[in-house]
Design goal:
Shape: elongated
Strand order of the largest sheet: 11-10-9-8-12-13
CATH architecture of the largest domain: 3-Layer(aba) Sandwich
Largest sheet: 6 strands, mixed
Number of strands: 25
Low-confidence stretches: 585-589
Number of domains: 3
Helix content: 25-40%
CATH topology of the largest domain: Rossmann fold
Strand content: 15-25%
């Protein structure tokens, strides 16, 4: 008796010959003796998520009639039943299904058929009928418990699509355009954390990053949960459906934003969507972030871009009991501010293909805070004089720091996001000769007078460039401090006055409640953020085109805070949902 077979990797599909294999005898030559053991094995394997297909030389109608009578026809996927050679048919079948030959076993009593199939699909596992009695206990066919046959249903959908494609006789793209493909971006990853882990650890052919999580499920949950909670992380599960059925959650991505540059840490999709170009579409929605590809993948996003125009995007509204809604196109979007808007814009890439971002940027070891109005006011006025520009450059600023696309983008029909949190936190310095007023700070010296504190300058300067700039600041500038309430109101009024009233403006309020507030409600709110928010509310009060977004509405406890200005990722998602409701977008039918 032959030993239990071993295969180089897990078997995900068995392709069955019928005559003298699935049953004894030949259907066209005197009848058959049906094998109940094969019948029961197919049912058992399907419940493990291991699929079964047919490749037989027979009459299709007769086989379908017989297997339907045995109530097992629908347990097979992609039945290939005709009188042509089996090798090419099996190669075509694997291409349609999207499986590698190494994860497939072909069983046939004819050695020539086995050899032909192995040549047509290199790496294919082949065996005669004698292997059947060992398959139930073979470790590579253990599969994964699937009592609801969800995997079988997914492959039956794919089979139906392939059949429909053959009937329509159209090109692949034309067929996709007729398939009513819908893609849901579900940002509530925590609610489906185990599915995200499964996609990360189990996908191969369309797993671009292959950053695996620990096999221990608790360790995997902890590691992915920590990554998801960070304010620089953006992530979503991708769910796909079309006119043939619902594929479920078939993709996952997670980006990390380092110094406002996004990099994909996870980008993986199930092969059940192969040749639907879902991965191309999602990558395009994300604006093609940096993607380190590891190992072999079956799709080339960077060298073989495809413009996907057959997908309808969906998103979930705050009311969880309501179905997903068709994503509304918000038109051109302009966003100027800090990391608060950078986190929010991730969600809005789904709503606009034209987003102009003017965010804080790193330079020479420190962050250029574009969310301070000192940079925007000259850009909306006459600009800096040559002497003022020279003074600004002495502190490391450049001409483009005092420029903006606000006036060219914020036209009727557009959406404008503004955040001025730095006005409440970063002090202003005045150049003695020109009167130029600019903010200046280093990490560890926020809201401090760097000119008056030689000890502080020595403590926070980390490089020779920073030390040189601090010397220039002390010599050529004077400390003015934070903007006052009147200055804020004046500046915000001037900014909003240059934007047409037909433009929807969204102003981000600053968080006033730090971690200590949640531990002791008697602790005072952040004074300077209160001043900023009061000024913003005042200028917005008589402007119907201005919407205020308050992060405090979505900060439930101290666990939601990384610090006063940075929150867990799900806080930004809740802000996004509030935005969708506040904009009063028309609901899809």
């Amino acid at each position: 008796m032959m030993p239990c077979p071993e295969f180089p990797e897990e078997i995900r599909l068995i392709i069955w010959d019928l005559d003298e294999t699935f049953w004894n005898g030949t259907l066209t030559e005197g009848g058959i003796a049906y094998r109940q053991d094969c019948h029961d094995l197919v049912l058992a394997l399907n419940r493990r998520g291991v699929m079964n297909a047919i490749c037989s030389k027979n009459d299709h109608a007769n086989i379908e009639r017989l297997l339907k009578a045995k109530d097992i026809w629908d347990q097979f996927i992609f039945p290939s039943i005709d009188w042509t050679a089996k090798g090419p048919r099996i190669a075509a079948m694997l291409d349609q299904i999207g499986l590698r030959p190494q994860s497939v076993l072909f069983i046939d009593d004819n050695p020539m058929n086995l050899a032909q199939a192995a040549e047509a699909a290199p790496g294919l596992n082949t065996a005669g009928p004698e292997v059947i009695c060992h398959l139930k206990d073979a470790p590579q066919l253990a599969g994964k418990d699937d009592p609801d046959l969800s995997r079988l249903r997914q492959y039956k959908i794919k089979e139906a699509k392939n059949h429909a494609k053959e009937i329509t006789d159209d090109s692949t793209l034309d067929f996709l355009r007729k398939s009513d493909v819908q893609v849901l971006f579900d940002y509530d990853v925590t609610a489906h954390l185990d599915r995200a882990i499964e996609l990360i650890n189990r996908t191969n052919q369309l797993n671009f990053t292959k950053n695996r999580l620990p096999e221990n499920i608790e360790d995997a949950r902890a590691k992915l949960g920590a990554a998801l909670s960070h304010n620089t992380s953006d992530a979503a599960l991708i769910r796909v459906r079309d006119r043939f059925g619902d594929y479920g959650y078939v993709g996952f991505y997670l980006t990390r934003r380092i110094q406002n540059t996004r990099r994909l840490e996870h980008f993986c999709f199930s092969c059940r969507t192969l040749n639907m170009f879902i991965e191309h579409y999602v990558y395009d929605v994300l604006n093609n972030p940096e993607l380190p590809v590891r190992g072999e993948v079956l799709s080339d996003l960077q060298n073989d871009p495809i413009k996907v125009d057959w997908i309808t995007p969906l998103t979930l509204l705050p009311e969880k009991e309501k179905p997903a809604q068709t994503v509304q196109n918000l038109g051109p979007i302009f966003a100027r501010g800090g990391c608060d808007l950078a986190s929010l814009m991730h969600y809005l890439t789904l709503h606009s293909s034209q987003i102009t971002e003017e965010f804080n940027a790193p330079r020479n070891g420190q962050m250029l805070r574009r969310d301070h109005t000192a940079f925007l006011m000259p850009a909306l006025g006459g600009g800096l004089s040559a002497a003022e520009m020279e003074a600004a450059q002495s502190l490391g600023y450049q001409a483009q720091d005092f420029e903006t696309d606000l006036l060219s983008i914020c036209r009727p029909g557009s959406l404008c996001f503004l955040s001025f949190w730095a006005d409440a936190d970063i002090p202003v310095y005045r150049h003695k000769d020109t009167g130029l007023q600019v903010p200046y700070w280093l990490v560890g010296a926020q809201n401090h007078d760097l000119i008056a504190r030689a000890d502080l300058r020595a403590a926070v300067a980390k490089t020779d460039v920073q030390r040189e700039r601090l010397n220039i600041l002390s010599r050529d500038f004077e400390h003015l401090g934070l903007l006052g309430p009147g200055q804020m109101v004046q500046r915000y009024t001037q900014i909003l006055d240059v934007i047409p009233p037909q433009v929807q403006i969204v102003l981000m309020l600053a968080n006033e409640r730090g971690s200590l507030f949640f531990l002791n409600r008697d602790k005072p709110r952040h004074k300077h953020h209160q001043i900023l928010n009061t000024a913003l509310r005042q200028v917005a009060a008589q402007r119907p085109n201005v919407m205020l977004l308050n992060p405090e509405n979505h900060i439930h406890d101290a666990q939601d805070l990384l610090d006063l200005n940075h929150f867990r990722r799900d806080v930004y998602h809740r802000i996004y949902l509030e935005l969708l409701e506040g904009l009063r977008l028309p609901k899809a039918a």
